[in-house]
Amino acid sequence: MFPDRIAGVILVYGRCPAHYSGPSTSYSATGVASTPRHDRITVEAINQAQAQQAAIEIIPRTMSKLSVYHLNESELSVGNQVRITRNDAQHDLVNGQLAQIVGIEADTVTFETGNRQIILPTDQPLHLDYAYTTTAHRAQGLTCDRVLYNAESFSRTTAQDTHYVSISRERHEVMVFTDDANKLPERADRLRYKGLAHDIAGSAHVMTGMTMDAYEAALELQAP
To answer: pTM score, two decimals?
Structure first.
């Protein structure tokens, strides 16, 4: 079971193992098997410049800033809106940053974000995703011409704060899609309260994500 889960995953870490020569920035490798010693994983390079080097063993628990990913293949075209999904200090990119594909070559992808263009090689995983949809949390501070808002009446995240963000991102038009138009107003009127540990003195449990009514009821139960 353990080798089956490890084989094929992408490992990204801040420093190269001593076995590899090359830059000290993030380096990608693919786990191919587990050794009989279950604290070690055999990995091989993805980067074509280092692909000829022999596979090595690493001990994940001794490595700092180790991230694990599954590799997904997506088609990219010039004009695609994309989102950065991993911080990249080398290129001054942050997780969640938006960009647009402006050029594709056999070995590179060029995208534009802000007033600058970034060129990334395609011989290693690109931490990008399509950016045509987003959560209300990520949409804070964004503005676009038209918004298609999926508002589920049964969702615990449908409340005043997320509803307001979702319907106020547009310049011209917002269309709301919901499973129940009758229940949605009540759900969107909820005022969520994120409780703190000291809010309910003497309680053995910390209740978070409560509605205001639930919070007030909990305080009444705590009252002498």
So the answer is: 0.60
